[in-house]
Amino acid sequence: MTVPSEPALTQTEPPQAPLRTESFRKARPEIVGPETPESPFPIYMSGAVQKGFGRGGKDLGCPTANLPDEALESMAAVTTTGIYYGYARVHPIIEESGKTGDCQGEDLETYPMVMSLGWNPFYKNEKMTAEVHIMRDFESDFYGQKLSVVVLGYIRPELDYTSRDALIEDIETDKRVALKSLERPAYKAYEKDCLGGKN
């Protein structure tokens, strides 16, 4: 899939998201994007992890880390809303205080991620967010700690859903697609990129 051209930054209110259909689910590819990342990717984002609605882990079984509003601009200026994939890394220091956060050890390595950039139409959000799901079971929360993300490709558009189960099913598919897409050498190279030197 190619990234639609209308930048998300121009959207001042939630666009009408199409409903997810059974035919869409059946037609989903296992791998997305070209063999190497193409413009506008890679896109680098970073910021202190914010408290969100708490729905990801509790309601959907997919905990997410929310980036601050100012971190969205670099991506929202060149892409549209939707689901994206790449890598993410939690840093040891809490930005505001300079203290060491609870997240330590292997939790601070780089891991595959999927990210939703948009309005979450199923929940009818009133502002655009960037919610990152890092594919790792973390020992502790890392609110306030810096999160760096490199976005390497686009998975699918933002959709609305008639049921929570349908949303969960698509989220699980998004994770599988991200992992398979990142297995290609040109994408895997970014795992050791240290996120563009943005430590």
Automatic annotation (TrEMBL):
Q: Does the keyword Flavoprotein apply?
A: yes
Q: Where does the Riboflavin kinase domain lie?
A: 38-183
The EC number on file is 2.7.1.26
Q: Which of the seven top EC classes does this enzyme belong to? A: transferase
GO process terms (BP): FMN biosynthetic process; riboflavin biosynthetic process
SMART domains in alphabetical order: Flavokinase (SM00904)
Q: Which GO terms describe its cellular component?
A: mitochondrion
What InterPro entries does the annotation carry? Riboflavin_kinase, Riboflavin_kinase_bac/euk, Riboflavin_kinase_dom_sf
GO molecular function, a single term: ATP binding
Q: Does the keyword Cytoplasm apply?
A: no
This chain belongs to which protein, by name?
Answer: Riboflavin kinase
